[in-house]
Amino acid sequence: MESFLGIDVGSGSVRAAIFDASGNRLGISVREIKQHRPKEDFVEQSSNDIWSNLCSAVKEAVAKSGVIPAHIKGIGFDATCSLVALDKNNKSVTVSPTGDNEWNVIMWMDHRATKEALEIDATGSEVLKYVGGKVSVEMELPKLLWLKRNMTESYKKTAKYFDLADFLVYKACGNDVRSVCTKVCKWSYLAHEKRWSIPLFENVGLQDLFENDKIGNKIADLGEKAGVLTKEAASEMGLFPGIAIAVGMIDAHAGGLGVLTDKPEETLALIGGTSSCHMAVSKEPIFVPGVWGPYWGAMLPGYWLSEGGQSATGALIDHVIRNSEVFASLKAEAEEKKISIYELLNKNVEKLRLEEGEPTKNFHLLDYFHGNRSPRADASLRGTVVGQSLNRTADEAARLYLAAIQSVAYGTRHIIEEMNRAGHKIKRIHMCGGGTKNTLFLKEHADITGCEIVLSKESEAVLLGSAILAASASGVYDSIFSAMKSMNGTLNSILPDKSRKTFHDKKYSVYLEMYKDQMKYKEIMEE
Q1: Beta-strand (E) ranges in 355-468?
Q2: How many CA atoms lie within 13 A of 247 on its CB side?
Q3: Model's pTM, two decimal places?
C-alpha cells in the first residue's frame, strides 16, 4: 500500500507520477509551463507558474493512480538547474529586463552571463579543478554576478536565491534545506571538504551572498529528509500534511538514479531531453578536461560524479525538423497517418538507405548550435552543416534529420572517449528520456559509440529517480541504494552493428575536423 510521489520540473513541462515500492508507475500527469524570451540568449520562467502547474499535475496523477493520498509516504523533487529569486516575504523578484516580477527564474539555458563566466574562469580559483577547468554559463555564479551588475535593485531586493529543485523543497516543507547535488554541481560548493571557496566569491564581489542566509547554509545529502509537507502545500496539492519531503536533486541526476542497476562504474547514465547529460561515477576522483566534476556525492552517495553534457540534443533535432522547407507537409502527412513526425521521418530515412546505402556519406553536421558543453566547454561555438543542396524535398529533410541524430551521437562518443582516456571504464550506456522512444536515435547511438544501449523497465526514469529519493527519505527503505535495488530494473538492450564501424569511424573523423575548421575560420577573421 506504500507509494511515493516523484515530481520533475523540466524545461517545458512539470510532471508528477505515483510509484509503488517496487518501482511500478501507477499514475502520471503532465502540465506545460511557460518560457519567456525577452531578448536573444535570455530565457526566463515563473516560479508561480511552475508551482501552480505542479499542484495541478499532482492532483491528476493521484487521481489516475487510484492511490489513497494517506498511502503516499514520501515526495521527491527534481528540476532543471535554473535560478530562482525570492524577496523576504517569499514573493517573486524579477530577473527580467522587462522588470516584470512574474519572471523570477533564470533558466539553465539562458546565456546572458557569458562574459561573467569567463571572468570567473580568469580568477584561477581552486573550484575550476572540479568543473572541468571552466565554469559554465549555465551555472549559478555567472548568473548571480550578471544580476548584481545589471539588475542592482533586484539583486538587493532578493532575500533568497535557490536552485529550482531546492526552491520546490522549500515551498513544500518550509525548511531551507539545500541539496548537495545542486550546490556542488552548480554553485561551486566543495562537498568533499564540506566548504565553500570564500576567495572565489571575494574575487568576483559576491561575498555578500553569505549574508543573511541568501544561498542557504544547510546542505544535506541525497536520500535525507528535508522536512514534511506543510498544511498550505498539502491543500494546494490535494494531499495530507506530514508526508516526508526528500532533499531535492537536479533532473538529469535523478535520471541517473532511475536507470542505474549493477556495475555503476562501467555504466554511463545518459539522460536526454532538450539537452543531454552524461553521468559517470567512480570511487576515486577522475579529472576530465571539459567535463564537469568530479563532484562528491552529487548523484550516488559515496561516489564521485563526472558529468558530461550536450547543450542541445532534442532541441537540435526539433530545430532541424521545424526549419525544414517541407515541415508543414510532413506534419500534415504524419497527422493523416496517425503517427508522430519522427516515425514518418524514420520511414523516409529507411527509404533513403535502400536507395543510397548511407544517406549522409557526403552530408555532415556539427551539433554545436547552442555551443558545446562537453568536452569543448565553449558556449560560443556554433553548428555547421556541410553538403546542403537547393532541394526542398522530404528526402532532403530526412537526410538532415539523420545527420542531426548522428551528430548528437558523435558528441556522445566524444564525451565517452575523453572520460575513458582520463580513467573511467565505460562499457555500456543506460539511456532515458525522449530519445528512447525513437528507434533510429537508439540504433545510431549504439552503432556510433560501439556501446550496448540498455533501456530501463521504467521509461520515465527521471520521475522514478525522484520517487527513489522519496522512498529513502520516508524511511520505507534505509538508503538510496536499497530503494534503487527494489525499484529499478532493465527492459531490453540494443547492440551495435559492427558492420557500420568503418563508416562511422570516418564520419566521426569528419565531425572532429569540422570543429578544427570552425576554429581556423575564426582565427582568419580575427587576424
Answers
A1: 364-366, 384-386, 428-433, 452-456
A2: 22
A3: 0.90
Containing structural domain, residue 499? 314-454+493-526
Q: Is the distance from CB of 305 to CB of 280 less than 8 angstroms?
A: yes
Q: According to the model, what pLDDT value does residue 261 have?
A: 85
What is the number of other CB atoms lying within 10 angstroms of the CB of residue 218?
Answer: 10
Closest CA to 425 of 310, 508, 509, 306: 306
Q: What is the CATH number of the domain that holds 404?
A: 1.20.58.2240
Residue 146: what residue type?
W
CA 492 to chain centre: 23
For residue 290, is it left (φ>0), alpha (ψ between -120 and 50) or beta? left
- CA–CA gap between residue 56 and residue 10 (Å, rounded): 16
Residue 339 counted as domain residue:
yes
What digits encode the pLDDT tens for the residues 84-96? 999 999 999 999 9
Alpha-carbon span 17 to 467, nearest angstrom: 8
| Assigned C-alpha cell, 144 | 548571480
Is 61 contained in some domain? no
Please list, in sequence order, all residues whose beta carbon lies within 8 angstroms of the beta carbon of residue 323, skipping any fewer than 6 positions away. Answer: none
Which amino acid is it at 333? E
What end-to-end distance do the CA atoms of the chain give, in Å?
A: 69
Count of CA atoms in the C-beta half-sphere (13 A) of 236: 15
